[in-house]
């Protein structure tokens, strides 16, 4: 971070912010395009990264000051999973929803005809070949969860590999993959190229799930809390602007530029706007409910890491509190003006909204995400078998498959 790169910006703090070319990097783009950063004495330098691994490594090496990052990336680095351990600061949530799972056209057709995923895998006669974007990331956990809910063990019945989001289309075109989980607009891209078809919206797995976060190293947040607070304020303004429907076309036009996504604005908007499979829209602000960093969200990821044998540590609550810089978030000057009630829908560590807060109806929960047994059960246990039966019905895997599992 520098304060004197350009004479005209001598009073601005230059902040290098990493991002990946995804629709949900929009808050960074909007902050730069509208000059919101300068309102708070900052000059953001957006730096596009080729992969989440590269973004992580450059953040840890001090080549980036902050980043648009997967929620699970921050958790993984905090725990030292798959790379060096470094204490991180999760400053705010940038968006919720907006991801998905796509399958090859032939498998997607079977899915829509009512075949269960386990049945589709049996027909293939080999493990499913699937991809996500980072080992501890959100896409890996959405994919694992979705597979397990349908009696497909993600570590035994599938071969999951890591591929950067922009490379998913090429992998699908060559036939190297049967499907993938990633963010938009890459599902729109593979649909346009005819090599994949969206079968599940991430909000059907966890309604209003956390997705990308604004993160930095903990030492930066602790040395310069006022700067971190200014960065939060800047991106809160951007998120608020993005949630105005009239601004989506302009945002898509900016994202279409080569420095950001380098894709047609129409492609970017295709799944940003409402579409048939959309369980909940991509949200950046939602009257302030999107953005507070939440320990409950971190706890869910830690539970999933334990479930899949990625991590077997303890002290989950302490880890979540250390990672989520709620104090810094509260200090951001504009948060108080945007508080709407509690400012966030209350939910448990399994993503289930609090009944009293939302009037949540179990009969409307199609994804089975609310079943609290999911975090504790083993893949082979009776508790999981019963849970998977219910998930099969909720996900409409197929009448015959669901009936057979329910009877079993």
Explained architecture:
- The protein folds into two domains: 7-96 and 210-243 and 283-338, D-Maltodextrin-Binding Protein, domain 2; 99-208, D-Maltodextrin-Binding Protein, domain 2 (3-Layer(aba) Sandwich).
- It contains 21 helices and ten strands.
- The chain has helices at 26-33, 36-39, 52-60, 71-79, 105-112, 117-124, 138-148, 168-173, 186-192, 202-205, 218-223, 225-242, 248-255, 265-270, 295-307, 316-323, 326-331, 335-338, 355-358, 382-394, 399-407, and strands at 13-19, 42-48, 66-70, 88-93, 99-103, 128-132, 158-162, 179-183, 197-201, 212-217.
- It has a five-stranded mixed sheet, with helices on both faces. The protein has a five-stranded mixed sheet with strand order 7-6-8-5-9, sandwiched between helices.
- Helix 7 (138-148) links the parallel strand 6 and strand 7 (158-162).
- It holds the Pfam family NMT1_2.
